[in-house]
Protein 1
Amino acid sequence: MRTRLTVLAFSTLPVTAPAMGQEREPLLLNEAHRQIVLAEMRGMLEGVQGIIGALSKADMETVAKLSTELGMGGPKPPMELRRRLPDEFRKMGFQVHTAFDELAASARAGEDTPRLLNRLQHALSGCTACHRKFQITHADY
Ligand code: HEC
């Protein structure tokens, strides 16, 4: 009994770290759909990079243009993939795209850089919230 408790005590630390990833909800996708989702993600990160670059030069036209591309009017994933996405995932995606539309509108309205950065930060909190919640898990369909 004593040995067992000791083993448990020592095993706690290394076990909790990798287990953290497993707390996320599985987003069940086949390989083709996984690739589409990840490509969209990389595009969003590139968009954010461009927005920050444009903000640093106070180039509000580019801020508005890039933010619009990340907004609700951006390219939609194929219907077959959208059907697979849980409601919560879609809702979180919707919130992020809407936040970018608001950023675009604010840049066009001439808001100053600190406020626009604050909006960008708000949009990014939607990215990180979803990353904390979901993990793509392979599915055959
Ligand atoms: C609705 C959910 C959701 C939102 C919103 C979201 N992501 Fe993701 N993202 C994911 C999931 C799920 C993965 C895959 C993570 C995994 O399986 O471990 C991912 C992966 C990524 C990756 C890795 C891509 C690769 O090729 O491996 C990047 C980069 C990324 N997201 C950037 C972003 C950025 C930037 C935003 C916001 C502008 C964002 N994501 C918003 C769900 C989301």
Note: DSSP finds six helices and two strands in the chain.
Protein 2
Amino acid sequence: MVVGIIGSGAMGAGIAQVAAMAGHTVWIYDTQQAALEKASASLKSNLIKLEEKGKIKDAASFFAAMHFVSNLSTLAPCSLIIEAIIENLNIKKTVFSELETIVADNCILASNTSSLSITSIAAACKLPHRVLGLHFFNPAPLMALVEIIPAIQTDELLLSTIKELMLAWGKTPVFAKDTPGFIVNRIARPFYGEAIRIYEEGIADMATIDWALTHIGGFKMGPFALMDYIGQDVNYVVTETVFESFYYDPRYKPSFSQKRLLEAGWLGRKTGRGFYNYAATATLPKPTEDLELGKQIVDRVVAMLINEAMEALHLQIANAVDLETAMTKGVNYPKGLLAWCEEWGKENVLAVLDNLYHQYHEDRYRACVLLRK
Ligand SMILES: NC(=O)c1ccc[n+]([C@@H]2O[C@H](COP(=O)([O-])OP(=O)(O)OC[C@H]3O[C@@H](n4cnc5c(N)ncnc54)[C@H](O)[C@@H]3O)[C@@H](O)[C@H]2O)c1
């Protein structure tokens, strides 16, 4: 099969590698020559490294299957095109309607958008039934999860075809309803938002919150270290988009602490400073290793995460198995949130949420009706 990738940035290049390693011929298109050159160089070096580690046999043949082009019409023979360009609805719509004038009527058109409505992208097309969301995680060659998001116009028969294809690419596909943040970017919001809230209220400092969630909670990275790693620009924009898209539901409210970092250009590791200062001369703050405080922090953040997972289940955003898979494979949570709820005890989770609601009288802490039932 010939696969087309639109946009050769971080995601486009990663997805191109996955498709080439699955045996497809890949055409990678970008408007920026420099981006194409950068992607070509990094893909070549990634494949050589994989060959040196003995993970693949013939890096050169995989690289030869990838073609870097600056003319969109080259993508005419593609059976599947995955778009991974700038996160802007109007630009994506323009690209999709232009693509339709080039490809065959049975070419599947997918978007890797993190937060935009697949339905609105499909609406820009004459044949919207062949459009769907295919949300890979960064870095695409390493992260197994792919969220498959049908638009309301998508042909149902397409879904099993795409699921089989993702399995053949070695990925773990899950299905998500076309709602803001899909599964992962919706359910994970309190990991960041509630941690910032705890910090803003002076309950604990960042290092202590990160320590609690890693050492007691079992998460691979603490929220502040993770936000610095993702980049405040990327993480804040997802939060803000989800908040606005959910008609300003206070559960997803962004914070001033993070917005100020963005305004200052303190974007995290990539700029040398974010929540933490990564300068060679700076020393990272030490946590207060207070087990009782740590447990309170973990209980509060995890109860909020479980509540999100319960709400997603209740609103049929995805089935229970896919919700668990998404959070363990997409963001490497130590266990699925529904399993965590069973283990901890539903009444204990509810008690933490009701206690927060009672203290704050904020809608943010309302417990999902499914949990209460
Ligand atoms: N970075 C992530 O962690 C991540 C994860 C999942 C999904 N996404 C989504 O993937 C998409 C791409 O993100 P990214 O991080 O790879 O961005 P990026 O900035 O690294 O790359 C985007 C590329 O698209 C190109 N581009 C912009 N407009 C174009 C157009 N009209 N035609 C062709 N090429 C164009 C740019 O030149 C650039 O090379 C976005 O929709 C983003 O939301 C990102």
Note: The chain is about 50% helix and 10% strand.
